[in-house]
Amino acid sequence: MSPRMPAQLQQQNVRGPGLKCGEALTMGLIAAILAITLVSNASAQQVPTAPSLKLAPGVIVDPDRGFAYVMSTEGGIDAVELARGTRVWHSNAAAKPLVLAGDLLVCQGDARSGNNALEIVIVNVRQRGESVLARTVPLASGVQVSIDAMLTGTFTSSALVVGREVVVSWAYAAHPERARGMPDTTPRDDKSRQAPAAPPARGSFRMDLSSGEVTPLPPEQAPAVVPAPSNLGPRARLPNVPDLQFLSADSLHVLGVQRIAADPAWERFRWSIHQRVSGAKVGEFGAHWSWAPFVVLGAQIIYLTPPYMRRTDQKLAEEPNKFRAADLATGRELWAWPVRDTAYRGLIPP
């Protein structure tokens, strides 16, 4: 169906027979341009335009817009401006960002923990995280869905944009009782006959970004899960860089890590950041962490650090998960934003 023309153009076209040839051609050209513009705008929300970067579970970086979408410590999702580290909007429609598809942020909902239903919520980042679509997908019996790690098991989810669809993959690993602090009642004579831990339950499904239609995927069609960046092997390492090397989230840079001091020194490591193709060094500075998920954006290095405690001036300071930006050349921190901690912090039975 053709897009509807503004009333002014419709009124001018009604008088079309009285228009000169040049005027009629001009009006036709305007109408054609308007039609193309409206169709382009309507499809832009549905069709992915550029890949987003998954820095870590629940932290999606959007380099084109200069934003990051992160799990909020308050629940919900924060949109953080990368240039200044300020929150531009907050949404309670979903809880864990999975992947960005054009204007649509595909997320996991923060449904009641422990059930076997996975809630997928799609929000529009141009509309400040307003929900545009939501579906609840039942999973296999015995699966316990939760964004936070549980004493009984760990549930993980990820997503991949494929055309006009998103493929969601999930896995659930139940924790054996012995790993939960429960007493092991197996007689010593039977230790050798203990059953091994059950393999994780897994599954995938496709979800149409427009209609929300969900289609289960057989295991052979499920996408391969790409592991988090790890220490590069000998063949992939850059020369003249410390042996401990890690890839950036976009695979364009390499982080070389060298230990330069022993405990209790704070900055025990030296980070050197290099372009992966040329090997050119673009930054170097001291750091407390032996590694962190990172990406280089302009003159900044963006990275995520785990919770830690540090004694300063006879006080014990506790730092939560934080999404940080530092000057690439000096390592000077430019800003930091807290991120929801999903690790299990509850009691463990004696």
Description:
This protein has 350 residues and is mainly β. It has three domains: 7-44; 53-185 and 199-221, Lipocalin (Beta Barrel), CATH 2.40.128.630; 244-338, no CATH class. Helix content is 9%, strand content 40%. It has two helices and 23 strands. The protein has a five-stranded antiparallel β-sheet, with no helix packed on it. A four-stranded antiparallel β-sheet has the order 6-7-8-9, with no helix packed on it. It has a four-stranded antiparallel β-sheet with strand order 10-11-12-13, with no helix packed on it. The longest helix has 24 residues, at 21-44. The radius of gyration is 26 Å and the shape is globular. The model is unreliable at 1-50 (pLDDT under 50).
Strand and helix map with partners:
Layout: H1 7-14, H2 21-44, E1 53-56, E2 59-62, E3 67-71, E4 77-81, E5 86-91, E6 96-101, E7 104-108, E8 117-124, E9 130-138, E10 153-162, E11 165-174, E12 201-208, E13 214-217, E14 244-247, E15 253-259, E16 269-275, E17 281-287, E18 294-297, E19 300-305, E20 308-312, E21 315-319, E22 322-327, E23 333-338
Antiparallel strand pairs: 1-2, 2-3, 3-4, 4-5, 6-7, 7-8, 8-9, 10-11, 11-12, 12-13, 14-15, 15-16, 16-17, 18-19, 19-22, 20-21, 22-23
